[in-house]
Amino acid sequence: MAVPLRQKASDEPERNRNTGVALRWHAHWNSGAISAAEARAAVGSFLDRVRATGHIIVPPRVAQDAQLVVSELITNVIRHAPGACGMGLEVWPDAGLVQISVWDTSPRPPRPRPPDGRRVGGHGLEIVRAVSHALTVTDRAHGKQITAQLLLSPAPPAE
């Protein structure tokens, strides 16, 4: 069951000019994550509300990649770290980034596997790395947090 950690009554993304974060949404679940499908829907809804502000352009490809990243990270939490967990979404227009953070109570860091086209499953972190601009794993007092950053616009081609 989803228990929002911080969500405005209007269900609008939060503005926070003091930290440079334009828009954010966070959720916390006390006994396991929502399904990957519900997480994808939450990301889609959040990015639709970001677009509705009229200030930030979120290209469809970035929204699709964000939903894919959340799906893979939440699936890993469900499979490998039952218990309390959470998800945070932030859009940083000045930096041109969408930031996705997923935390859980497992102290074990993710272990990427070498690419293997014959293996069924186990490609989630590889997929997240492929579509992300940056990927970090941070230790928390009780577990870890994985943060993926996606660029709002593609990087210019190298000359």
TrEMBL record:
Gene3D superfamilies the UniProt entry points to: Histidine kinase-like ATPase, C-terminal domain
Lineage of origin: Bacteria, Bacillati, Actinomycetota, Actinomycetes, Kitasatosporales
The protein's name: Histidine kinase/HSP90-like ATPase domain-containing protein
PANTHER family membership: ANTI-SIGMA-F FACTOR RSBW (PTHR35526:SF3), ANTI-SIGMA-F FACTOR RSBW-RELATED (PTHR35526)
Region Disordered, annotated ranges: 103-122
Pfam families, sorted: HATPase_c_2
Matching InterPro entries: Anti-sigma-factor_SerPK (IPR050267), HATPase_C_sf (IPR036890), HATPase_dom (IPR003594)
Record's keyword terms, sorted: Kinase, Serine/threonine-protein kinase, Transferase
Keyword Ligase: no
The Histidine kinase/HSP90-like ATPase domain, residue ranges: 43-149
